[in-house]
């Protein structure tokens, strides 16, 4: 009974404790926890949305950068393709240009077909020029003019050469006796060049041009350097070269004593023990400039003029004439002045031989009117005068007897000389006329130079000169001319050089070019009248007025 009663009480107490109205706050925590959870979930959701937006922006930025890189790569590839195509096109154009230039050089280096044609041929683009309407005298008149006016005026050329050569031999011998073997240049035998030794001199008074070769004293030697043999050289320096002065003990191949330190107990058998002790003044100090030393043209000419004056004073008592300098700006220009008032000019030209060839470096040469000016005092002019004499002599052997090539040159030179005295000197000189003749000799058959074709060849020579003047192009006969016979013995560097245009100054000097062209056409206009007049009457005195002389 008691146990049952206890159980009933326990049930009642449990029901009262669990009644919701008795403890209302304990059941209210659940809804509050749910709202907090919901707020946290909403905040997390917002944070996730923000992160998603950030990630989407990052992905978009990366995608934009990738697209930009791809676009740049595409543009670079297109530029490379465009550049490759342009480079290919430029290369093709350059190849085409070179092919055209080679073809032009091969076909136009020599006289053109228009210039090499008969008398009836006409140069293209020259309609109405004086040459087209030029009427030269007939063959008989030309031959009569040559016999009376030119051959007769130069009949005493051999006697003039003999007198000048004998005096120059004596003068150079006296010069050798005065020179120092340690510091002065050694003088060799002279060489006759130009018109007096090629038998086409026409101007009066007769003028001898003599090369005087020099060699260095021991222990020096000359090392010539051709400008035309260098890879890159200005066009105005192709006709020049330099002469380097080298000691023999500095130019021994294979010796390394100058590049290494020898012990005190070691001796160089090539140079010896006294090679380091060099004099303070030698050839380098007196006649050279620059480092390394190159032979200076101004110093050489000054030394040469002083040496000639001393040599003449030593032998002057043996002669009954005076010796004077003909031109102050040309130290080698001399005059023999006789007591009768007559004079005999000649030129002594210091030269340096280029190795073992017939090419010479010239310190000073009576320049053609349109000649280039040396850029430096160490630049020496290249002279092919000995080669020109050899070529004329070799060609004459293959020509018919009495060939008219020298007659053409003499008549053209005579006309040019007379025109120069009428209107003054122009840019056209005898050397240009001679160069034109050499080109024609190389291109024409020997049979074309028979004596009966004097009028045709003279007209052809004048046409060649006119065409060259209008084109402002007259190629040097030797430099860059591979048509010259190999038997001439030209240096290979000269044969393979770029062609030298003797009329290049006309491109730069328009006033000189205009004067030269006008003077040339006036010469052509006056030629028929001049030839006929001189055929009938020869002036008794054809000598030009003498230059002011300076007595030694």
TrEMBL record:
Q: Which UniProt keywords apply?
A: Cell membrane, Coiled coil, Glycoprotein, Membrane, Nucleus, Receptor, Signal, Transmembrane, Transmembrane helix
Return the GO cellular component terms, semicolon-separated.
Answer: nuclear outer membrane; plasma membrane
**Keyword Cell membrane among UniProt keywords:** yes
Chief subcellular location equals: membrane
Q: Name one GO molecular function term.
A: protein kinase inhibitor activity
- The answer on whether this UniProt entry bears the keyword Hydrolase reads no
Per the record, the domain of life is: Eukaryota
Q: Which residues form a coiled coil?
A: 38-79
Mab-21-like HhH/H2TH-like domain: residues covered: 427-479
Q: List locations, semicolon-separated.
A: Cell membrane; Nucleus outer membrane
The annotated topology with respect to the bilayer is: Single-pass type I membrane protein
Q: Where is the signal peptide?
A: 1-15
**Gene3D superfamilies in alphabetical order:** 1.10.1410.40, 3.30.460.90
Family per similarity comment: Belongs to the ITPRIP family.
Give the function comment from the record.
Answer: Enhances Ca(2+)-mediated inhibition of inositol 1,4,5-triphosphate receptor (ITPR) Ca(2+) release.
**What name is this protein filed under?**
Inositol 1,4,5-trisphosphate receptor-interacting protein
Higher taxonomy: Eukaryota, Metazoa, Chordata, Craniata, Vertebrata
Gene of this entry? ITPRIP
């Amino acid at each position: 009974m008691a146990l049952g009663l206890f159980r009933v009480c326990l049930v009642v107490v449990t029901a009262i404790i669990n009644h919701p109205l008795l403890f209302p706050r304990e059941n209210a925590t659940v809804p509050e926890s749910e709202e907090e959870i919901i707020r946290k979930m909403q905040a997390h959701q917002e944070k996730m949305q923000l992160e998603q937006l950030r990630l989407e922006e990052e992905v978009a930025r990366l995608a934009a950068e990738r697209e930009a890189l791809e676009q740049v790569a595409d543009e670079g590839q297109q530029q490379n393709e465009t550049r490759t195509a342009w480079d290919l096109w430029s290369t093709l154009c350059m190849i085409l240009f070179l092919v055209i230039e080679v073809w032009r050089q091969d076909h136009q280096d020599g006289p053109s077909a228009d210039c090499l044609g008969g008398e009836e041929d006409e140069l293209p683009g020259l309609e109405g020029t004086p040459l087209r309407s030029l009427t030269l005298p007939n063959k008989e008149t030309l031959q009569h003019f040559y016999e009376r006016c030119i051959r007769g005026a130069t009949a005493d050329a051999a006697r003039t050469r003999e007198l000048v050569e004998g005096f120059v031999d004596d003068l150079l011998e006296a010069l050798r006796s005065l020179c120092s073997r340690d510091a002065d240049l050694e003088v060799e035998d002279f060489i006759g060049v130009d018109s007096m030794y090629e038998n086409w001199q026409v101007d009066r008074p007769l003028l001898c041009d003599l090369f005087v070769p020099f060699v260095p004293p021991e222990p020096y030697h000359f090392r010539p350097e051709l400008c035309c043999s260098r890879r890159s050289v200005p066009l105005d320096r192709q006709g020049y070269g330099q002469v380097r002065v080298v000691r023999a003990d500095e130019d021994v191949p294979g010796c390394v004593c100058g590049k290494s330190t020898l012990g005190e107990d070691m001796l160089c058998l090539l140079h010896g023990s006294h090679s380091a002790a060099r004099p303070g003044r030698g050839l380098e100090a007196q006649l050279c400039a620059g480092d390394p030393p190159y032979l200076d043209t101004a110093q050489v000419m000054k030394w040469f003029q002083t040496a000639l004056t001393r040599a003449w004073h030593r032998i002057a008592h043996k002669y009954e004439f005076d010796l004077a300098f003909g031109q102050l700006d040309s130290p080698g220009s001399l005059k023999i002045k006789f007591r009768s008032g007559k004079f005999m000019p000649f030129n002594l030209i210091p030269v340096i031989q280029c190795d073992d060839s017939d090419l010479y470096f010239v310190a000073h040469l009576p320049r053609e009117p349109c000649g280039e000016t040396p850029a430096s005092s160490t630049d020496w002019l290249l002279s092919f005068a000995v080669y020109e004499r050899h070529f004329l002599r070799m060609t004459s052997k293959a020509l018919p007897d009495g060939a008219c090539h020298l007659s053409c040159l003499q008549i053209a030179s005579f006309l040019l000389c007379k025109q120069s005295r009428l209107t003054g000197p122009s840019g056209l000189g005898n050397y240009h006329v001679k160069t034109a003749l050499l080109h024609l000799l190389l291109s024409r058959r020997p049979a074309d130079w028979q004596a009966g074709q004097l009028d045709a060849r003279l007209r052809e020579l004048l046409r060649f000169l006119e065409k060259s003047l209008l084109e402002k192009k007259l190629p040097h006969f030797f430099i860059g001319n591979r048509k010259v016979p190999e038997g001439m013995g030209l240096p290979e560097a000269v044969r393979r050089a770029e062609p030298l245009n003797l009329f290049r100054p006309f491109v730069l000097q328009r006033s000189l070019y205009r004067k030269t062209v006008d003077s040339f056409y006036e010469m052509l206009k006056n030629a028929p009248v001049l030839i006929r007049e001189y055929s009938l009457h020869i002036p008794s005195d054809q000598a030009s007025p003498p230059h002011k002389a300076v007595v030694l």
